[in-house]
Amino acid sequence: MAAALELFSKRDAEDVSIDDVAAAAGASRALVYHYFGGKQELYVAALRSAADRLESRLRPHEGGTSLDELASGLRRYFDFVEEHATGFAALLRGGPANRAGEVGEIVDGVRQRLFRLILRQMRVEEPSPVLRTTLRSWIASVETAGLDWLEHRDVERPTLEKMLVDHMVALLGVAASYDGEVAGLLERLA
Amino acid sequence: MAAALELFSKRDAEDVSIDDVAAAAGASRALVYHYFGGKQELYVAALRSAADRLESRLRPHEGGTSLDELASGLRRYFDFVEEHATGFAALLRGGPANRAGEVGEIVDGVRQRLFRLILRQMRVEEPSPVLRTTLRSWIASVETAGLDWLEHRDVERPTLEKMLVDHMVALLGVAASYDGEVAGLLERLA
Q1: What is the average pLDDT across A122-150?
Q2: Confidence of residue B98 (pLDDT cuts 50, 70, 90)
Q3: What confidence score (pLDDT) does residue A18 get?
Q4: Which of A88-92, A119-123, A128-132, B16-20 shows the highest mean pLDDT?
Q5: B26 to chain A, minimum CA–CA distance in Å?
Q6: Can you give the three-state secondary structure of chain B, one letter per residue?
Q7: How many CB pairs under 8 A join A and B?
Q8: What is the pLDDT of residues A153-185, one digit of tens each?
Q9: Which domains does chain B have, with CATH numbers?
Q10: For residue B97, what pLDDT is reported?
Q11: Single pTM value for the model
C-alpha cells in the first residue's frame, strides 16, 4: 500500500502499472491483483490511505490560539501537498479516475472532515448558514491555492500559508458583518 | 441541442436517455445518434454550449465601476447556476462523466475565461503571482458558494452575491499587504 501510494503521489496514475507497484513493493503481480483486484481498486485504496494520513496530520496539536492552530494546520497541509504533488494535482484537476463514485466520495470526505475539524477548533457546534458558506469557500480557496502553487511555485510557501490565514480572518470579518454570531466568534479567535 | 441542454440542466445525466432528448427535440432517436454519436458526446456538446452561454452572459456591460460590474456579473452567474441547478451541481461534484478529458477541459476552460474576464475588467495585463492566486482562490470560492447555496438555499441570493463581492474586496485587501501592485489596483477599483 505504501509503495502504491508513493507511486501514485509522484506520477500520473495513467503511468503507474500494477507491475510498477509490484516491483516497488517487492511482491508479485499476482499478489497485488489478489489483494486489490485491479488498478482502479488499487488507486482508490491508495487514495483512501492518503486521505487518512492527511486527516491524522491535520488533527490539531494542543496549545496556541485557533489562528495559531490554523497556521500550523496549513503548514502540515502544504507539506502533504508537496509530498504528494503529482497525485494531488491530478486528483483535483479531475484525475485519471472517474470523479463520480468512490473517488469523488473520498475527495468530498476530506473536505467534510476539514470543515468539521475547523468548526471543532473554533468551538462551534452548529454553524450558521453564513459561517458554513464562508468556511466551505475558504477550504475551496485553499485547495485552489495549493494547485496554483504546484503549477507555478512563484510564491514562497510560508508567504502563501500566511496569506491564507489572513484570508480566513478577512472572510470571517466579512461574515461578521452579515451574522452577529460570527462577530462573537471572531472576538474569541483573536 | 437546446433540448439536450434543458434536460441535462434539470436532471442527473444518468437519468437522461437519448430517447428523452429525441422526444424533447421532436426528432428521431436515429437523428440524435446521427448528429451526436452517443450520450457522452451529446453531454459534452450540451456542456460546451452551456459554457458558451455562461461566458456570453458574463461579458461585462459597459458603465459602472469594476465592483459594480463584479456585482452584476455575480448576479448573472447565479441566474445561470439557478437555471441549470441539477446539471451544475452534478458537474462540479464530479458528475456522471469522467472529469478527465473533454469534460474537465470545459470546466477548466470556464474558470480560465472567468479569470481573464476579471483581469480585463480590472485592467490588469499580467497578474502578479499574489494577484493570480487571489483571483483563482476567489473563483473557486464562488463556485463552492454556488454549490452550497444549491444544497441549502438558506441564505438569500442577493445577500450571498453581496457577500461574495465583499469577499473579493477583503481578499484584495489581504493581497495588497503582500504586493504593492495590488494595493494600487485596489485604489483604482474603489
Answers
A1: 94
A2: very low
A3: 87
A4: A128-132
A5: 31
A6: CHHHHHHHHHCCHHHCCHHHHHHHHCCCHHHHHHHHCCHHHHHHHHHHHHHHHHHHHHCCCCCCCHHHHHHHHHHHHHHHHHHCHHHHHHHHCCCCCCCCCHHHHHHHHHHHHHHHHHHHHCCCCCCCHHHHHHHHHHHHHHHHHHHHHHHHCCCCHHHHHHHHHHHHHHHHHHHHCCCHHHHHHHHHHC
A7: 116
A8: 999 999 999 999 999 999 999 999 999 999 998
A9: 1-58 (1.10.10.60), 60-189 (1.10.357.10)
A10: 44
A11: 0.89
CB contacts, 8 Å: B13 with chain A: none
- Reading the block at residue B142, the C-alpha cell is 464562488
Give the chain A residue nearest B108 (alpha carbons). A93
A contacts of B173 (beta carbons < 8 Å): 170
Contacts of B88 (CB under 8 A, 6+ apart): B9, B80, B81, B146, B147, B150
Q: Do the Cβ atoms of A98 and B94 come within 8 Å?
A: yes
Q: How close does chain A come to B23, measured CA to CA in Å?
A: 28
- Pairwise CB contact (< 8 Å): B137 & A149: no
Q: How many residues does chain A have?
A: 190
In B, minimum Cα distance to A143 occurs at B137
A137, B159: Cβ pair inside 8 Å? no
Q: Does the beta-carbon distance from A163 to B178 stay under 8 Å?
A: yes
